[in-house]
């Protein structure tokens, strides 16, 4: 079974399939929320200055991250992009909130 | 600009699939949004109490009447609000938080008999536009559709800018493809404005607890508690005093306020502690030459006077306001055009109709491609789209007719009107599957729209008892123009009904098998 | 994809409620205190603040007459229960909040049909009738097509 999954993930496709599509959509939403949360931590000022600009840029970032994940040749690369970027952003968030 | 050929294929497919998912939600939102651009004018048309003619003599003095109204209706003297007549609402409104508002004819100063009227049409159109009619998830769903629309715009732009070696000749000759592309490019600023503000209002505000939780280390969940005190700071109520003191006349106070703040266009007057010793009067509104940054919903500017002596206590200018308040005010001004008169609204209305045509052409491009494949699901989807996208026009005309037909005194009137709107929409769904020929469906939709728009115009005049040219001569221009537009729309749809037979494009979609 | 859109359309229909007479946050309640009396309470649910001075009107469900008029005194108002089914209106600012009135312990004299949810029930029924007829027509056509192919 593992062999089948591995070959499934590594094959190059000519059309956008279900796995590829869902990874792009869900990954785009998660990455945009994480990146705007990181942005809101770095903005200096009171709560309004921190929250509102990050909320305004979130929908634009959704499209940009989505296109980046969409442009992957295999399902494996798409999943790799999503997983590693979101883990990197989560670690950055954790350290920014709790300090080093 | 060059991108990989495989990536271009991915992008095209994503554009198509996401376009089909988003079109049904976003088309409805754009259709009702385009109508709601003219909300203040529609509200003037649908409320019979606004149909009063203007008098040549206009005196501002309302102090005696104000005293009478406050006493009879037991208004809360801690904060009485007076809204001055404007192009948005010609009536003078006196209200306080715990009672129904009282409306006055600003010329004769008599109290208008509201007779249980309610702005059903503008409220229901706005509700359908924001998606609040779908319980619990409606607003978020519309926000998601707006974000998808942003993606469609960005991917469309990328596909347009990418130059490929061989251009598909057939593709470029297709009328719908050429104009879907061209309209899409023209509408880029329109989509940025409305889809971005729409996604903010719909999606981001509903999921704002994520931001609140992370910024406060998982303590507070609602951003209203965090952001409210900074942006929406209310003036505190004054402390109670018992001594009654007669204030200066309201028109005199308004003169002093205008003299001290000439750029302010006064829209609203708030009297704190009416006729008591420490009474204060606040005159608020927007700047005449900067409506975007000082829009009256988010960032109203004001000047506070002492009611007894007329001395200026506080003056809020544009520089004193918070930067985020100015940003949000511009945001809301772009989406709602608060305080804007006709010109910008007409421009956005025309762009809205161009957007509807662009979306329709996008759908037709996909439907044409699928004509060559097997009958079955694609024909069902085509008929469903006709019912949804075109059947909404006569259904909204029925909503306007029901507003005048169902008596104002029925307590569940609004539910009846909204329910019957959905019934008529589902009737068109039923009809587009019962009738075999697609041309006949189009003819039915166009003919019924024409008749229903004519009926709306007639019912309005019969109900308010003012006929068409009397509207014009009594200076009720808003209502006259809307009635005229209804007649023009009825004639337009009748003309389309006559021309459907000769429209050969639709024959492609007729059912091919004899089943 | 086809099924999702049908479900979306159904969701459009199943969504009306007494929306015109509800204001988010403002709550109106009534409770029986005697055989024939009710106590009406109006308050803001978010801040738990009692509403003071708001006008209360009792309307008859039978013929829309005004049966009683009064004002909230620091959030409360006591009154006798009318002899026929009624609705309680509370006026706040631009709009009003409406609830159905409680019946007396021994019930009303005479037979009255409940009018509370009639609009929702009838319009929902009609819409669903059209939608199900459509689904029936679609399946009939699909079956015919499958038979013709064989």
What does this structure look like?
The complex is a heterotrimer of chains A (100), B (515) and C (150). Chain A has one domain. Helix content of chain A is 82%, strand content 0%. Chain A has helices at residues 2-10, 18-42, 47-70, 75-98. The model of chain A has no long low-confidence stretch (mean pLDDT 88). By secondary structure, chain B is of the alpha+beta class. Chain B folds into 4 domains: 1-47 and 120-207 and 341-372, no CATH class; 48-118, no CATH class; 238-336, Nuclear Transport Factor 2, Chain: A, CATH 3.10.450; 374-515, no CATH class. In chain B, 58% of the residues lie in helices and 8% in strands. Chain B has helices at residues 5-36, 39-46, 63-73, 120-130, 138-161, 169-173, 175-186, 188-206, 209-215, 223-231, 250-260, 323-336, 342-369, 377-390, 392-405, 413-434, 438-464, 468-473, 477-499; strands at 79-83, 92-95, 102-104, 264-272, 280-287, 301-306, 312-315. Chain B has a 7-stranded antiparallel β-sheet, covered by helices on one side. In chain B, helix 15 (392-405) packs antiparallel against helix 16. The longest helix of chain B is centred in the N-terminal third of the chain and has 32 residues, at 5-36. Chain C has a domain at 21-113: Immunoglobulin-like, CATH 2.60.40.3080. Chain C is 29% helix and 31% strand. Chain C is built from 2 helices and 8 strands, in the order αββββββββα. Chain C starts with a helix and ends with a helix. Chains B and C meet through helix 1, helix 14 and helix 16 of B and helix 1, strand 7 and helix 2 of C.
* CATH A-level architecture of the domain at 21-113 in chain C: Sandwich
| Main sheet makeup of chain B | 7 strands, antiparallel
Helix content of chain B: 55-70%
In angstroms, what separates the terminal alpha carbons of chain B? 50 Å
Strand content of chain B: 5-15%
- Topology pattern of chain C, helix = H, strand = E: HEEEEEEEEH
Helix-and-strand structural type of chain C? alpha+beta
Q: How do the strands line up in the largest sheet of chain B?
A: 3-2-1-4-5-6-7
Number of E strands of chain C: 8
Helix content estimate of chain C: 25-40%
User: Oligomer, anyone?
Assistant: heterotrimer
The main pleated sheet of chain C reads as: 4 strands, antiparallel
Report the end-to-end length of chain C measured between terminal Cα atoms: 27 Å
Taken from the alpha-carbon principal axes, the silhouette of chain C is elongated
Uncertain stretches of chain B: none
């Amino acid at each position: 079974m593992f062999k089948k999954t591995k070959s499934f993930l590594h094959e190059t496709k000519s059309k956008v399939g279900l796995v590829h599509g869902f990874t792009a959509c869900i990954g785009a939403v998660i990455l945009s929320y994480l990146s705007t949360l990181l942005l809101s931590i770095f903005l200096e000022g009171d709560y309004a200055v921190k929250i509102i600009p990050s909320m305004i840029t979130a929908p634009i970032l959704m499209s940009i991250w989505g296109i980046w994940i969409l442009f992957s040749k295999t399902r494996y690369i798409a999943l790799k992009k999503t997983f590693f970027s979101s883990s990197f952003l989560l670690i950055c968030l954790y350290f920014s909130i709790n300090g080093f | 600009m060059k991108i990989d050929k495989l990536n271009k294929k991915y992008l095209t497919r994503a554009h198509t699939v996401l376009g089909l998912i988003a079109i049904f939600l976003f088309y409805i939102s754009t259709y009702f949004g385009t109508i709601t651009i003219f909300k203040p004018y529609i509200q003037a048309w649908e409320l019979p109490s606004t149909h009063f003619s203007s008098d040549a003599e206009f005196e501002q003095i309302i102090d005696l009447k104000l005293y009478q109204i406050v006493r009879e209706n037991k208004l809360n003297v801690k904060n009485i609000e007076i809204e001055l007549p404007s192009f948005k609402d010609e009536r003078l409104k006196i209200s306080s938080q715990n009672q129904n508002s009282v409306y006055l004819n600003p010329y004769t100063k008599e109290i208008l008999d509201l007779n249980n009227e309610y702005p059903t049409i503008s409220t229901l159109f706005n509700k359908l536009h924001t998606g609040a009619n779908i319980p619990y998830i409606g607003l978020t769903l519309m926000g998601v559709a707006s974000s998808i629309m942003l993606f469609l715009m960005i991917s469309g732009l990328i596909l347009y800018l990418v130059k490929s070696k061989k251009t598909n000749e057939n593709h470029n000759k297709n009328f719908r493809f050429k104009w879907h592309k061209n309209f899409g490019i023209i509408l880029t600023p329109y989509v940025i404005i409305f889809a971005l503000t729409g996604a903010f209002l719909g999606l981001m505000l509903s999921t704002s607890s994520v931001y609140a939780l992370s910024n406060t280390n998982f303590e507070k969940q609602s951003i209203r508690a965090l952001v409210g005190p900074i942006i929406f700071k209310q003036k505190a109520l004054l402390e109670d005093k018992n001594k009654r003191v007669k204030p200066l006349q309201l028109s005199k106070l308004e003169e002093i306020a205008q003299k001290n703040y000439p750029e302010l266009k006064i829209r609203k007057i708030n009297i704190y502690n009416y006729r008591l010793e420490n009474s204060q009067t606040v005159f608020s509104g927007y700047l005449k030459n900067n409506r975007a940054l000082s829009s009256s919903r988010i960032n109203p500017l004001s000047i506070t006077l002492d009611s007894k002596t007329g001395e200026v206590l506080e003056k809020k200018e544009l520089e004193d306001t918070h930067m985020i308040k100015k940003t949000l005010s511009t945001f809301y001004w772009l989406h709602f055009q608060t305080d804007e008169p006709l010109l910008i609204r007409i421009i956005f209305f025309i762009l809205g109709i161009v957007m509807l045509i662009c979306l329709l052409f996008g759908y037709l491009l996909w439907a044409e491609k699928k004509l060559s494949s097997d009958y079955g699901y694609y024909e069902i989807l085509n008929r469903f789209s006709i019912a949804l996208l075109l059947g909404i026009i006569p259904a909204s005309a029925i909503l306007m007719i029901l507003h005048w037909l169902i008596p104002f005194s029925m307590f569940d009137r609004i539910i009846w009107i909204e329910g019957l709107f959905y019934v008529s929409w589902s009737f068109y769904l039923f009809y587009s599957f019962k009738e075999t020929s697609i041309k006949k469906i189009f003819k039915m939709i166009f003919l019924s729209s024409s008749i229903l728009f004519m009926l709306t115009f007639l019912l309005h005049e019969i109900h308010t008892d003012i006929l068409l040219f009397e509207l014009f001569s009594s200076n009720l221009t808003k209502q006259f123009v809307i009635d005229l537009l209804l007649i023009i729309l009825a004639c337009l749809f009748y003309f389309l009904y006559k021309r459907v037979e000769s429209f050969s494009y639709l024959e492609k979609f007729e059912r091919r098998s004899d089943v | 994809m086809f099924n999702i859109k049908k479900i979306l359309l159904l969701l459009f229909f199943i969504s009306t409620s007494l929306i015109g007479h509800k204001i988010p946050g403002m709550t109106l309640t009534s409770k029986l205190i005697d055989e024939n009396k009710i106590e009406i309470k109006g308050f803001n649910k978010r801040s738990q603040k009692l509403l003071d001075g708001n006008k209360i009107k009792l309307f008859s469900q039978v013929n829309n007459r005004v049966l009683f008029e009064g004002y909230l005194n620091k959030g409360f108002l006591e009154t006798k229960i009318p002899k026929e089914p009624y609705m309680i209106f509370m006026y706040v600012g631009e709009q009003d909040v409406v609830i159905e009135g409680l019946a007396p312990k021994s019930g009303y004299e005479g037979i009255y049909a409940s009018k509370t949810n009639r609009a929702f029930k009838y319009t929902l029924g009609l819409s669903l009738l059209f939608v199900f007829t459509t689904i029936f027509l679609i399946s009939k056509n699909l079956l015919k097509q499958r038979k013709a192919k064989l």
